[in-house]
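Lecture notes, unit on protein representations.

Consider one protein chain, 784 amino acids long.
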Amino acid sequence: MRIPELLAPVGSVEHLKIAINAGASSVYLSGKNYGARKFAENFTLNEIHEAVKLAHLHNVRVYVTVNTLIKESEIESVLNYLNELYAIGVDAVLIQDLGLIDLINTHIPKLKIHASTQLTCENQRKIDYLESKNVKRVVLPREMRKEEIENIQTNMELEIFAHGALCYSYSGQCLMSSFKGGRSGNRGTCAQPCRQLYKLDNKKDYFLSPRDLCLYDELKEIAELNIKCIKIEGRMRSKEYLAVVVSEYRKALNKLKSNKSSKTENLSLVFNRGFTKGQFKNTYQKSLRPGHLGLKIGKVIEAKKSQIAIKIDDNIHNIPQKGDGLLFIKGKNDYGMEISQNPLITSLNHFNKNKIKAIKDLTRKNKVLIIKKVRQNKRNDFDLTDSNVYLTKRNSLAKAVKEIENKGSSFIKSKLILTFSLKNKYPHLKGRLTLANHKELSFEVTGTVKFETPLKRNVSQETIKKQLSKLDNYPYQITQINMNYDGSLFIPIKEINKIRRELFEGLASEINKLYENKKEKIKLTKNNSKRNDEIAFSYYTNNLEDLSEISGVKRVYLEIPQTDSINSMVNFLKEAIETAYPKDYELIWKWPDIAHDDLINSLKKVRGILNKMHYPINVMSNDFNGDYGPYSMNIANTHSINSLENYKVITISPELRKKDYEDIIKNCEDNSKIELLVQGSVELMKTRYGFDKKIKNFELIDGKNNIYPIQKSLSGEELIIFNSEDLSLIEEIQYLASIGYVNFSIDGRFKNKEYINMIDIYKEALNGKIKNKEIFKNSTKGNY
């Protein structure tokens, strides 16, 4: 059993110190730019340097998130920023952008790359590709199940999320915030539209808001898997959250070394939306509310105007006290209050007999908590009887957090051997330090004041040892002090203290030097570009009948509707190939954007069967090895396009702006390799979390009555939520062609047969004529 690394989120310098003290073995943080949590406090470059020094002193690794999509205009700037991070000595960087991975390998090859969960690496093919690109670690999607993780074969380190917020969509596959509010999750500015109320089948609920992940009880199972690191989510959470969550997981992991299990209620007392084991255990539960839920402690058995009686669950150890906060939830209603007076604890028996008598033994079962409501409490507008009660704030926890904040400790201390001697009667101190990574370094200091023959008293060996043993808050563990001094001379004690402090400072400086690297400014050169003038259209469909009607396009991307049968897939494609054979377009099989290994294996079987039947077909896939790349690959710059050498055509991200499109076409090496989605429904979310099986009408409605169609993926395991309005760049098509774009696609999946007419409408728009403007009135240009 291998105890995994415990990785903590750090949103500020204060948070860093708490994470170290609480027992993190590594931390992840972000600079002011290029991180997926732009609204956290984050770090300047100088602060990152100081953070790295402090963390390395405590044997804690530092990973910096540079896990947003990088725009064409930012490439050189971000590359030099990464070079600064390498010089500072960060242990690794988390990357989402494919082009950036290639650029790091070319210009900063010794900088360790961790693939961000934003890259959505859910199958072996993607993992193999990243390993071939010198990526050292991959952060797996939160949607991966235990058995899927178990089957991964790789030399890369695997990292999984173990605690914190869950997105409804696969990370990197959500465009909802971007399209609905102009704030992109792929650029670190997600507005969290998933935490809002939606209507589904005439019911209003937090359908897109999962409970928070908690794998605390699964740590033994995780340790038995090939998982290098478990990650706590929460760079925008409070200091209390960080201190409690990291310290609780650290204690549990330490116990695991001795094969002991742990229990805790404290995780529920800091921010959570309720807990779930998530897809790791193939479960999904939506949150009851978007905010903090707390620890469920019992149920209201009587509610009067000035008094509330709560039957406390027998397994609860955190009994509420004065100053604590409570939340009452009953159906869709909730009510919060702070306990203003000392509550009374009695037995259920006493309560039923109306003998309200305090009990001392708080371990006994069937306890009832009596809380007085005072005038200052906000009035509740529903009957609290039968409400579930949650403890949301625990005052006594603040004391424990303060202790963690101030204790100045670390998970693993460096081992220090000191040797004290005299050099020409001057005190001399040498230290040999062994770090947690087994690297050794040494430093020595000679004092400036000589030892003298004592007039009154000498300074003994024991006195010197005592002074040298003072650690001055340095995270060293002194394992040995060698004394080459007979104790017969005198020197002021302050001189011994001085050389001790100088030695400790010197060792800290030597630790920093171990990690620092030299840097040179990076200047990118532009390659020669190849230009094609032939305009070509592509059309997406999942309807066999469309294939005989479609004409005037170069490519048709065909998606198979939901099925769990290999035979039906083979027959569907066989008929499609036969129908398309006499047509003048190339038929391309669009694989699902999310494909776990079970589905990948089925798709490979289908392709093999078709090849044997002499029905070969090219593939559109986002696994970094396909022939054609969908927009789900989140391509935002020419370096990402160039890195995907195997692809003939790649659709760039539809969430880019006009200026980004201009920059890409200006700098691309081959304009015929780029395609733009100009018309159709955009996939806002891809999710592995379903809805209630009783749901009939698969349309999601937001607070403004916008309707978002929902479709099932090929496997039926994932859902795709489409935008409420079609993307339409009909008014921009002429301009886009004029600046060099030649490939345009129209998405006609889940549309009626008349949608095929869009092909001719767009061709005429290239000549400046836009017919049927009325049909575009409810469309959007997205972020264009």
